[in-house]
Amino acid sequence: MRAIIAGGGIGGLTTALMLHARGIDCQVYEQSPEIRELGVGINTLPHAIRELKEVGLLDRLDAVAIRTGELIYMNRFGQEVWREPRGLDAGHDVPQFSIHRGALQGVIYQAVLDRFDEPVVATSRRVGFLEQDDEGVTVQLFDRAGNHVATDRGDVLIGADGIHSNLRATLFPDEGPPTWNGAMLWRGATEWPSFLTGRSMIIAGGMSAKAVVYPIANAPSAAPRLTNWAIVAKVGRPGTPPPRREDWSRPGRIDELLPHIARFAIPHVDVAALIAATAEFWEYPMCDRDPLSRWSHGRVTLLGDAAHPMYPVGSNGASQAILDARALADALAAGADPVQGLERYERERLPMTADVVRSNRTGGPEGIIDVVERLAPEGFDDVDSVLAYADREAIVRGYARTAGFAVASHTRPNEKERTMTETELAGVTRADRGIDDLSWNILGQTYVPKHVSERLFAWHATFPAETFVPPHIHPTQDELVHVLDGELVIVLGDGEAAARAGDVVRLPMGQPHGIFNRSGATATCLFAVAPTRKLFDLFEAIHGLEEQAPEAVVALAAQHEVEFLPPDE
């Protein structure tokens, strides 16, 4: 198999690495004249870093980034609204990295140069016209002046060419430009003295304007380090055209930024002085696009910002592109049919990224300070009296689950600290515990989620005697059942068989199956489903019903891609 990748940014280059690791040949075309380390700071979340670790980049990233240790949300007066550990400090098995965007791209690009026997990145090449048939896809390549310079052919074409994707415009010619939400983002980075832990990230403000500050490079404890800052403020009406075209490398204007700086009083960092010390900074109108109903058209698909451009909220833009790359490479490597591989990739990634796009529109995890500002615009004496701890936690934790990087809740400050023992390792969920203390009643059974990640949802189920899951179909999910004790009857297709303690049953996607406890005693088992999101959300919705009437459960299931079969006459 051979893949053609349009775009040499983080998403396109990571895709090349992932394909190479699976023995799939590829060629990357980048329309810029060179791969340059542009931009300012970004955060890359643990679920994305885990994928880069799998292709051997963790040490290289450690050399150019800083391991984020904590995130603090404040109002514009510097009063703390929420504080939480991040990365390894939060219990993940890999770090969260604060890093210069160009440095991240540079690490990935160098790995591409090192690992391929022949050069696979061609610059000053834009993928233009394309034509596909039963055997492959042919693309016409143009230089920056618009001259046709070459033709190439592959088994699949991957559009990783950003928010202004030429391929997306080809597939969706009537879509129109990105939508602006009326906010402008200014970003810069300069050397600055360490603050707080030296690995702290601050997000302050609310609905009208926010300030973000965090270091993006290591340095001796007392030395200045490269520090990233961002200011975002409402300057126009949502839905109107932005004052200037979306471009990550457009220089900002200090006269437009200055009026928004004075509103912030962050006790740990002099934001005004930090910005004044920055020789050059950039602006970007906060734009995204509506989620698509499909990415793949035969042998052509989209990835990263070309597939799901989102507001830069919650540290998810680059992270989601990296996750796309892993899922796409896995899907193509899973079978000989490239078209089915692209469809499999789309089924896994499109619903989750659409959820992140929509969540970012409402502020994502930063909605916590939006709500507090709305309730207490002039500050507060006690944040709990403004917004209860549980409500604040729900905003932050809910986003982490949506974006796929949740860990179990951390202990509330000032409460008894949780001690870590050799039997309580980070990333291990104890057999007698679940996630975030969730427990659902589903059709008379008790379900306790045990693990929720990018690619796996697992839960413990208790089946009292005579309870059952009616026959149903998962069109997009494989399911495994490990019987722990008792006996269950598994109906699969037209047959059925008893499954006893120790048995593992595979319930393939697209095949009707039901689960019955006819033993007269309680049975327990562990379920695992991949991919995850829709079934997790379905269980929450069913648990929330006042009455789990059959018609209500069936209707909810249909919304989450689970199809219950009608009962036998």
Description:
- It is a single chain.
- The protein is 27% helix and 30% strand.
- By secondary structure, the chain is α+β, with helices and mostly antiparallel strands.
- Among the domains are: 2-63 and 101-177 and 292-361, FAD/NAD(P)-binding domain, CATH 3.50.50.60; 440-564, Jelly Rolls.
- The strands form six sheets. It has an eight-stranded mixed beta sheet with strand order 6-5-14-15-16-13-18-17. It has a six-stranded antiparallel beta sheet with strand order 20-21-22-29-24-27, with helices on one face.
- The two termini are 49 Å apart.
- 44% of the residues are buried.
SSE inventory with pairings:
Blueprint: E1 2-6, H1 10-21, E2 25-29, E3 41-44, H2 46-54, H3 58-64, E4 66-67, E5 70-74, E6 80-85, E7 97-100, H4 101-115, E8 121-122, E9 126-132, E10 137-142, E11 148-154, E12 156-159, H5 166-171, E13 179-192, E14 200-205, E15 209-215, E16 225-234, E17 250-251, H6 254-261, H7 271-276, E18 281-288, E19 300-302, H8 317-333, H9 338-361, H10 367-375, H11 383-386, H12 389-403, E20 440-442, E21 445-452, E22 457-463, E23 468-473, E24 478-485, E25 487-492, E26 495-500, E27 504-507, E28 513-516, E29 523-530, H13 533-543, H14 550-559, E30 563-564
Parallel strand pairs: 1-2, 1-12, 2-8, 5-14, 12-19
Antiparallel strand pairs: 3-7, 4-7, 5-6, 9-10, 10-11, 13-16, 13-18, 14-15, 15-16, 17-18, 20-21, 21-22, 22-29, 23-28, 23-30, 24-27, 24-29, 25-26, 25-28
Helix pairs in contact: 1-4, 1-8, 2-8, 8-9
